[in-house]
Amino acid sequence: MHLTLDTRRRVLDATLAAERDLSAALSVGTLAEWAGLSDKHFQRAFKALLGETPKAYLRRLQLQRAAYLLKWSELSILEIAIRFGYDTHAGFTKAFKRAYGHSPQVFRDARDVVPYLHPKANAGESNQLEPMALTVRIEHVPDQYVVSMRHVGPVETCVNAWRRMIPWARTRGLLHSNAVLLGIHNDYWDVNAQDAYRYDAAIVVAGDFETDDSINGFTIPGGPVAMTEFCGSIAEEDRAWKRLVDQWLPVSGLQPRIDCAYDRYPATLFSGGAFQRLVQTLTGYQATLCLPVSC
């Protein structure tokens, strides 16, 4: 199915709105209305663009949010089930176990184990990491308005978003020396997105920046953010995130916010030629790992 740039943007805008305003009452019809498309057109375009139906997408987000509440709130399992549209404890347990591999009670009881990206794929891996002292600081970050291009696919292909973003940003003069580039991870709590991982290549801009049909614009809410500096390869960055989330966070006394987690890159990462950028990516680059938290 061929999608126009306008349709792609409408669908992605609706998904971004859903991610930030999730409730049990949210329906496919509501998403279609937000996108300004008919239900049938919206569902076909959504499946073509994101590889899953809108109904499956909403259910996945609700289970993701439920996992967060199980780990970090004192709400009962039944209260969480009802909040996300499940009429019974049993129905919620069945759906949750199918997604996370454990019942809600078992998942909650393991409060000292924080799910990192895909718990099924990485079960027990964090316990095998060698101890490492992280230098983590907490900074209060203001609201950040960003323009972004989204990539949906395997985690290792997220760089494709930057292959599209960089030429677009360069023609608009956004890649200056003070540019703030963010790689936004939208599936931090998700276990079912290994082949449909949602990643945004984003650049912080002024709030009055005019977007076009090839770009999305939204605000990352401000607040305290745990930050640690990183220098290394892509594989090493993944392990650094595991240490931050699985080792540092549980003993920090802080809770993660569900907004998103993101990498902050220096503008110089994309200032060289294609070969130079490839060498940087494979052998080592600098980034700040940023985890929004609640104090």
How are the secondary structure elements laid out?
Blueprint lengths: L4 H16 L7 H8 L3 H12 L3 H19 L4 H7 L5 H12 L3 H6 L9 H4 L14 E5 L2 E10 L5 H13 L9 E5 L11 E8 L11 E5 L2 E10 L1 H15 L6 E2 L4 E5 L8 H10 L1 E10 L1
Antiparallel strand pairs: 1-6, 2-4, 2-5, 3-4, 3-8, 6-9, 7-9, 8-9
Helix pairs in contact: 1-2, 2-3, 5-6
Order of helices and strands: HHHHHHHHEEHEEEEHEEHE
CATH topology of the largest domain: Multidrug-efflux Transporter 1 Regulator Bmrr, Chain A
Total number of helices: 11
The rounded Rg comes to: 19 Å
Mean pLDDT: 81
User: What does the overall shape look like?
Assistant: globular
CATH superfamily of the largest domain: Regulatory factor, effector binding domain
What is the CATH class designation of the largest domain? Alpha Beta
Total strands: 9
Q: State the major sheet.
A: 9 strands, antiparallel
Helix content: 40-55%
CATH architecture of the largest domain: Alpha-Beta Barrel
Question: Can you describe this structure?
Answer:
This protein is α+β, with helices and mostly antiparallel strands and 295 residues long. It has 2 domains: 5-113, Homeodomain-like (Arc Repressor Mutant, subunit A); 137-294, Multidrug-efflux Transporter 1 Regulator Bmrr, Chain A, CATH 3.20.80.10. It has 11 helices and 9 strands. The chain has helices at 5-20, 28-35, 39-50, 54-72, 77-83, 89-100, 104-109, 119-122, 159-171, 234-248, 274-283, and strands at residues 137-141, 144-153, 181-185, 197-204, 216-220, 223-232, 255-256, 261-265, 285-294. The chain starts with a helix and ends with a strand.
